[in-house]
Write a structure and sequence with these properties.
By secondary structure, this protein is α/β, with parallel strands linked by helices. The protein has five helices and twelve strands. It is 25% helix and 26% strand. Helix 1 (27-50) links the parallel strand 1 (2-7) and strand 2. A seven-stranded mixed sheet has the order 3-2-1-4-7-8-9, sandwiched between helices. It is globular and about 50 Å long. The two termini are 29 Å apart. It has two domains: 2-123 and 134-209, Dipeptide transport protein (Rossmann fold); 219-259, no CATH class. The structure holds zinc ion (ZN). Zinc ion is lined by residues 8-10, 62.
């Protein structure tokens, strides 16, 4: 039984960033976030190995993909890291499940710490066939195209609600309750590790109850930018987007992979 744990850095316990920028613009918070993301990924891996996993690949997804503290990661894991390697390029239909650690709510979500969709400075929202999606939905659909279900999500309460609506039957751990883009009531970062390990182990045992999430093409993609100049740029002929209004552009793609 092989698994992939996709790891972002905004969703772990104790992470709220600071006003005026991204997580990376708050150095002390970023430094804590990458350690806690590593610890939460290791906790999930312990649950997977206890449930009979034969391989666990940890995918470092935040920014340039070199965030996790490798020598603190459970040494039974393999690590997929670095930039421009594609979304879930290491996953195929031989995998039993995908897990999300440290993911965050999509942009346009109230009281969700560090909520964004791929870029907090660039996009207000992204819709696929009229439905707002975040990184959770997109990566779940990439795995779903291989027939691989999402078994587990650990994040703040808004991202957990987003995942539960999208992925019926998914097991979840709430790491913190969001109060604003930069405020949360967090569980203690060490206590949440035991909860993740136990919940992941139980989720593997009932994995047959969870269906892969799919977004079959053709897909109408609509993106609302936060600035008019980046919408202008998207509509240059080389990129192929059509204008809807000053901030919004759209185009039709045949498969989700065409989005990247
Ligand atoms: Zn991130």
């Amino acid at each position: 039984m092989k698994f992939v744990i996709a790891v972002d850095c905004e969703g772990p316990a104790g992470v709220v960033g600071a006003p005026g920028g991204t997580l990376n613009d708050a150095p002390a918070q970023y430094e804590f976030a990458r350690r806690q993301a590593t610890a939460e990924a290791s906790a999930a891996a312990r649950g997977l190995f206890a449930a009979g996993a034969t391989q666990v690949i940890v995918w470092d997804t935040h920014g340039g993909g070199v965030n996790l503290v490798t020598d603190e990661l459970d040494e039974r894991c393999d690590l997929f890291h670095g930039a421009n390697g594609g979304r879930l390029a290491m996953l195929d239909r031989t995998f039993a499940g995908l897990l999300f650690i440290g993911y965050h709510a999509r942009d346009n979500t109230l009281a969700a710490p560090l909520a964004h969709t791929f870029s907090s400075t660039r996009y207000q929202w992204i819709k696929l066939n009229g439905r707002e999606v975040g990184e959770l939905a997109v990566d779940a659909a990439v795995a779903g195209a291989h027939g691989v279900p999402v078994l587990f999500v650990a994040s703040d309460d808004k991202a957990v609600a987003e995942a539960a609506a999208l992925l019926p039957g998914v097991a979840t751990v709430t790491t913190k309750i969001g109060y604003s883009w930069n405020a949360a009531l967090s569980k203690h970062p060490r206590r949440v590790l035991r909860e993740i390990e136990a919940t992941v182990q139980a989720a593997v045992a009932r994995r047959d109850a969870v269906k892969p999430f799919t977004l079959p093409g053709p897909l109408e993609v609509e993106i609302r930018h936060k600035r008019i100049d980046t919408a202008d740029e998207a509509c240059l002929p080389v990129y192929g987007w059509k204008r809807v209004d000053a901030y919004t552009v759209k185009r039709t793609i045949q498969a989700l992979t065409d989005l990247f």
